[in-house]
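Re: beginner question about structure tokens

> Can someone show what the tokenized structure looks like for a real chain? I only ever see the sequence side.

Sure, here's an example I had lying around. Input first:
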Amino acid sequence: MNIVASLLAGLLFGIGLVVSGMTNPAKIIGFLDLFGKWDPSLGFVMAGALLVGTVAFRFASKRQRAMLGTPISIPTKRDIDRRLVLGNLAFGIGWGLAGYCPGPAVTSLASGGAKPWIFFVAMLAGMAIFEIAERRKA
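And the corresponding structure tokens:
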């Protein structure tokens, strides 16, 4: 049942990305172009996500288990450390250069274009490098 719920949630998320235009890198680059032809539409998508997320986290924080019975584990760490800042910088630079973040990149793979595939492979390589570095450090 959890697999079906995860699949349906992922499909809903992907459809939302397509409908909102967030799988189009030009929309993302337009949002980041504050001094050019700025496109505020991503801001509205983010505001909607924050609203839904805030309500969902408030609801979830009062529960021990999810609706499907799995334990709820809400992160409690709130420190801003070097790893968090460097990770955010890497994410932001990649997002600004490519116009993709992970969700829209995966959704865009179905478009058949080369750019989302190049980004996806680079993203997987970055994840692998991180995992290798973490294992060496441990």
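Each token stands for a local structural state, so reading them left to right follows the chain. Residues 2-137 form one domain.
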